[in-house]
Amino acid sequence: MPGFECHGHTVLDGVYWKAALERHRSGPDMAWVRSVLSAYRDANITYFRDGGDNLGVSEAARELAGEYGVRLVTPCFAIHKRGCYGKMVGLAWDTLTDYRALIRELKRRRADFVKIMISGIISYETFGLVFGGGPEPEEIRELIRIAHGEGFAVMAHGNTPQAVLPALEAGVDSVEHGFFLDEECLSAMAETGAVWVPTHSTAAVLKGQPGYDRQVTEQIVISQGDSIRRAAELGVTIGCGSDAGAHLLPHGPATGIEYCVLERLLGERTNEILDKGCREIEKRFVYPV
Ligand SMILES: [Zn+2]
What we know:
Largest sheet: 5 strands, parallel
CATH topology: TIM Barrel
Radius of gyration: 17 Å
Helix content: 40-55%
Number of domains: 1
Number of helices: 11
Bound molecules: zinc ion
CATH architecture: Alpha-Beta Barrel
CATH class: Alpha Beta
Shape: globular
Distance between the termini: 32 Å
Strand order of the largest sheet: 6-9-10-11-12
């Protein structure tokens, strides 16, 4: 079992995202925050990289995490292009001037890193489909350049080579999810040294669940598994992050689920690979000095 959760959301509860967000509408529900931190302490997880939210919950959690023996880092809120995927946990930009203002706001709030949305989310009805939209490739490169210019590491939520390749070209620090990647993309990851957090459990736990097409879900799980195995062969740095808080991924157990899924793919090299990835994340995703 790893002591690292490299991608989770304190704000979410592993059940239903809308109800989870409601809990914090009039300010972070501190009883909830404490219950999440207790879950990590009890699971012996000492590092938690939050994916952010727009209700101040991950920042509240960061303040208290030390009491639970957890080091929690957060991008505060995630950033998306208006009209594209990301509203659930983030704030939007229309122009790069807006984006720069959001980065200044992150500096003020001492965000540990910047999280950007560069694509939508995957469909469980049609294999290979990603919906919700994202910025254009040139915009993706520029978003990363600007954040790096301010000294921040960049975590990018992205699926498909169309979104991920431009991000890698711009030197993105980590790619989250990364479903449907191809050989070119995986090789670019190995070359640039970006960390990949494939959140394989987000798909794996949906297999056989009501409302999810069994065949499509199975196909997604297999394709992501194949990519992870190939990435390991190519020497990609891989981190263990479950997207804890997402559907059917409760805080605490979620990290173990991701670890088990990865272990089935990586075999006896699991600890060596994931330790390296998690330590790289721990080192890179810190507030710029
Ligand atoms: Zn996430």
